[in-house]
């Protein structure tokens, strides 16, 4: 991995409204789906019994409408790494037009201890490869 992760999504008919716009509630779902390679860095194999991430929050900026019938490109990068948390920025495009951006705060989390825990150096190195 280097720089940005890029994935393409084909909007489904059920994600649109009567004006052929993509419903705004779909953006966080697409963003979570395209963060899967980052989840793999923390939890290879995506084993739920050893899950170690939690979403602390996210913000979606809507810049323009998006439409049914045109593929969506999601570009993902790491925009900040802290001690136990990190930030993922995802830019969404149809063609060359950016229509949304989501910034998600993620926390490396120990569910048994019920608290955050420092991000290991090996994982930090992999996150650094995705820093824009």
Quick take:
Strand 5 (97-110) and strand 6 form a beta hairpin. This protein has 132 residues and is α+β, with helices and mostly antiparallel strands. It has a single domain (5-126), classed as Thiol Ester Dehydrase, Chain A.
Which fold does the CATH topology refer to?
A: Thiol Ester Dehydrase, Chain A
In the CATH hierarchy, the architecture is Roll
Portion of residues in beta strands equals 35-45%
Relative helix content: 10-25%
Indicate the radius of gyration in whole angstroms: 16 Å
How far apart the termini lie comes to 12 Å
The counted number of beta strands is: 6
- Morphology: elongated
Structural class: alpha+beta
What string gives the helices and strands in order?
EHHEEEEEH
- Low-confidence spans: pLDDT under 50, at least 5 residues? none
User: What is the helix tally?
Assistant: 3
The first-level CATH class is given as Alpha Beta
CATH homologous superfamily placement: Hotdog Thioesterase
- Global mean pLDDT: 95
Q: Strand count, sense and closure of the main sheet?
A: 6 strands, antiparallel
How many discrete domains?
1
Organism: Paraferrimonas sedimenticola
Protein name: Thioesterase
Pfam family, one: 4HBT_2
InterPro entries: 4-hydroxybenzoyl-CoA_TE, HotDog_dom_sf
């Amino acid at each position: 991995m280097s720089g940005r992760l890029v994935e393409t999504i084909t909007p489904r008919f059920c994600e649109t409204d009567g004006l052929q716009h993509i419903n705004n509630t779909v953006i966080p779902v697409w963003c979570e789906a395209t963060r899967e390679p980052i989840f793999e860095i923390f939890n290879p194999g995506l084993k739920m019994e050893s899950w170690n991430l939690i979403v602390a929050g996210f913000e979606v900026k809507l810049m323009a409408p998006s439409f049914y019938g045109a593929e969506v490109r999601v570009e993902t990068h790491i925009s900040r790494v802290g001690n136990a948390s990190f930030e993922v920025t995802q830019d969404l495009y149809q063609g060359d037009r950016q229509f949304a951006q989501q910034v998600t705060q993620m926390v490396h989390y120990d569910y048994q201890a019920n608290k955050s825990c420092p991000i290991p150096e090996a994982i930090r190195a992999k996150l650094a490869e995705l820093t824009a």
